[in-house]
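Appendix B, example 12.
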Amino acid sequence: MRILISGASGYIGGYLAQYFAKTGAQVATLGRKTGATIPFILGEPVRSQSLSDFQVLIHCAYDFHPKSLEDSLAVNAQGTKMLFDSAAAADVSTLISLSSLSAFPGARSVYGKTKLRCEELISPRGAISVRPGTVYGGPGGGIGAAVEGLARKLPLVPIVGGKSVRLFFTHVDDLAQCLRRIIENPAPYRGRAIVAAHPNVHSLDEFVRARVAASGSKKAPYCLPVPGGLTYLGLRALELLGLPAPLRSDSVTGLRFRADESSVRIPEELRPLFRDLFATPND
C-alpha cells in the first residue's frame, strides 16, 4: 500500500505517518517543510503527475493563519478541493480528508464552517471525510494536549464552560486504526462524512481527571469553570493586540456552539475500535 499524507509535520498527520509506516505501508508526505516527499502549500496547485504513484491520500493539512471565514475558505476549502482534484486526476483510488465534529450545519466557528465546506467540495469525488472527536494521546497536540499540559503543570486548570461543555473524544491510535479499516474497505464510506469517536461524551474536567489518572498521578488539579463568553472576549482581545494567547478564540467558539449530541451518529461497525476516555491505558 502506497499512502500519501499531507500535514505530516503536525500532531495527527505525523502520528498517522509513523503508524502506517509501521504497518508496512510506503508512506510519503506532502508539505512545505524540509523533508516532505512532495512540496505542497495548501491553496496552491499540485501537479497530478506527482501523485500518480499512490493509492491512498490522507489529507490532514490545515492552515490556521487565515482569520476571516472568507480567507479560510479561500486557502483551506479551495486548497483542499484543488488537492483532491489533482489526486483524482492521478487515479488515487481512496481519498480521505480529516474533518472535525465542529463541521455541521449551523456551525458558528470559522474552523467548523471551513471543514464543512471542505466536505461539500470533495464529496462529489467520492472522498471520505472522517470526523474525529477531541483527539488526545500519543505525542500530544490540539486542545486536548493544551488542557492536559496545564493539568500537569498547575494546581488549578481553567475549564471553558465547566461541566456544561461535553465533548466526544478520540484516542489518536484508535483514529489510526479506524482509518486503516476504512482504507481496507472504502466502498461503504465513499462520499460520506464518518464520525470517528467513542459514543460516550465527557466534560473537560473529566478529561483532566482521566488523563492525570492515566499518567499514574494520584492527585488531579482543581478545575475552575470559566464563562465561555468571557474567555472568548479575553482571547480575542489578545489576538487583536497581536499578543500570544494560550488558545484560539475560534476554538472557544467551537466549544460553546457544538452539534447536538443526538445528531452524532457513529457507524456501528466502527464503534468497537474506539475506547472510552476512562479506559485509556498509559501512553
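The CA atoms of residues 177 and 273 lie 7 Å apart. The radius of gyration is 19 Å.
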